[in-house]
Amino acid sequence: MTLKGKRENQKETTTPPLGEVIKQAREKVIAGLRPVLDRVKPYWLALPKPHRIGVSALAVLLVLLLLWPSSEPSQQPTVNLDGQRVAVPLNLDEPRSTENSNNTASEDTDFDRTSTPVVAPQTIDTDWVNYEVARGDTLSNIFRTQNLPLKDLYAISAIEGDDKPLSQIQPGQLLRFKRDTQGDLDIIQIESAGVQSVIFFRLSDGSFARRK
């Protein structure tokens, strides 16, 4: 037999089969875990049977989760710089989100700059209002309670006349008035029993006149 054949025979005899290697490794692991198992075994047997079944099921589930293949990360394009391949991250969403935030901010700014508060139009009653003079009433108090401008009271007082129909109002008298579309006094009528009504009305220039 040649020298080469002897060496091959020596290699075949010295190298154990793969199955023997796995078996020996498994025996070593079991031998190393045996002291731990012997310590845990009394506590394990002390547990109720349903608890042992549950712990065993959780252990099997944990092993399956650990062995479950994880998803491979997506490959990133590389750029060759001076002969070296450098990974370039793909942040496709970042510029878009930044652009969207900038657009939103600009829209909000434009809205704040151009927006004006919306004021609901006030409806003014231009129909006739009847008011019966009560004891202790004065024209100034009546104008205030009815939200009539006092400047209109001063204007009609200036043309009241010598009979003083405004200054001498009595309890029980009826006052009838109307407002214009601006809420100012348009016409006021003072009625008295047995006396002809006195009317003050607004002219086109904004002043008042008296009609008996």
Describe the structure.
With 212 residues, the chain is an alpha+beta fold. Among the domains are: 14-66, no CATH class; 129-211, Nuclear Transport Factor 2, Chain: A (Roll). It is built from 6 helices and 7 strands. It has a 5-stranded antiparallel beta sheet with strand order 3-4-5-6-7. It is rod-shaped and about 140 Å long.
* Order of neighbouring strands in the sheet with most strands: 3-4-5-6-7
User: Please, how many helices?
Assistant: 6
Mean pLDDT: 76
Kindly name the structural category.
Answer: alpha+beta
State the total count of DSSP E strands: 7
Q: What radius of gyration results from the CA coordinates?
A: 53 Å
Label the overall shape.
rod-shaped
Largest sheet: 5 strands, antiparallel
Named at the architecture level, the CATH assignment of the domain at 129-211 is Roll
> Whole-Å distance between the termini?
156 Å
Order of helices and strands: HHHEEHEHHEEEE
